[in-house]
Design brief:
Blueprint: E1 6-12, H1 18-27, E2 31-34, H2 41-50, E3 55-59, H3 71-80, E4 84-91, H4 94-104, H5 119-142, E5 145-148, H6 154-165, E6 173-180, E7 191-194, H7 215-222, H8 225-247, E8 252-259, H9 265-277, E9 282-287
Parallel strand pairs: 1-3, 1-4, 2-3, 4-5, 6-8, 6-9, 7-8
Helix pairs in contact: 1-6, 4-5, 8-9
Length: 293
């Protein structure tokens, strides 16, 4: 039986923003269900298809830990039946997740009686629960597009989710992301390029307040031999290995370009690379520090 449906599976770490992602999908017209038991996935999709639904989003997490290993096989079966599946995994650094749980005083799904007792013991228990959760979700993370929500706002995450919805499900999607090293390397990056050694427009008074998307900065960087060489070398590396990644059935590849402040050099290179690769590949771009896509 063929099923005509777009299915988005949202998984990820507790506290990483799954509710925000579901709200974005709901705004985009998807019928959303949170914490569906994995055992019911196939039957639920069939039922919704019979009811005429063509856009469905489901969130699953470690609360269904005992049956999570069934999910990859179920997704393959659904794809064979014609369902267009997108898997998105939301992640964040352990320190950020600990801070979020401490700030909201929520209990982690895997933690043992966090209320009461010594504060250091509670914190250690939370760290242990998060690391256990990472291990349990590792296979789902490997097969999904990962979004690092550590330091992005809810509006940015919603924009990222909506951008992914427009990407063709059957093709490899290439994501270029600019970031600032001073705020940490994105945990969703498959490849990271450090461009902090390149000439910095920050030290040019008339360019300091602008970004790599502004023409004066772009013109300045385009005239720098080192910048042109870096762009060419990154382009050659990615172009060399993308076909192999696609052949290996990778759905998403995230290339992160980092400079000191994430405003000029990394932004410019992401813009240029997105133009170069969009001619042949499904390409998205993100500017973490600018809050733009």
């Amino acid at each position: 039986m063929k099923i005509n449906m777009d299915l988005v599976l949202i998984t990820g770490m507790a506290g990483s923003g799954k509710s925000v992602a579901l709200h974005a999908l709901e705004d985009a017209g998807y019928y959303c269900v949170d914490n569906l038991p994995p055992e019911l996935l196939a039957q639920f999709v069939v039922l919704e298809s019979q009811q005429g639904a063509t856009q469905v989003a489901i969130a699953m997490d470690v609360r269904s830990s005992s049956s999570l290993p069934q999910v990859p096989g179920q997704l393959r079966t659904l794809q064979e039946q014609g369902v267009r599946v997108k898997s998105i995994f939301l992640d964040a650094t352990t320190d950020i997740l600990v801070h979020r749980f401490s700030e909201t005083r929520r209990r982690h799904p895997l933690s043992q009686a966090m209320a009461g007792g010594d504060a250091p013991d509670q914190r250690n228990a939370l760290f242990e629960a998060i690391e256990l959760e990472r291990a349990m979700l590792a296979e789902l993370r490997e097969q999904a597009h990962v979004i690092d929500t550590s330091i992005i706002r809810a509006a940015q995450l919603q924009a990222y989710i909506k951008g992914l919805l427009n990407a063709a499900p059957s093709q490899l999607t290439l994501v270029f992301e600019s970031f600032a090293f001073k705020r940490g390397i994105p945990v969703d990056a498959d490849y990271v390029f450090d461009v902090r050694m390149l000439p910095n427009p920050h030290y040019e008074q008339e360019l300091k307040a602008l970004t790599g998307r502004d023409a004066p900065v772009a013109n300045y960087l385009a005239l720098q031999a080192e910048v042109c060489e870096m762009l060419e070398q990154i382009e050659c590396f990615i172009a060399r290995w993308l076909p192999a990644l696609a052949k290996d059935h990778r759905s998403y590849v995230t290339v992160a370009i980092g400079c000191t402040g994430g405003q000029h050099r990394s932004v410019y290179l992401v813009e240029q690379l997105a133009v170069l690769f969009s001619k042949e590949w499904v390409t998205l771009k993100r500017h973490r520090e600018l809050g733009l896509t």
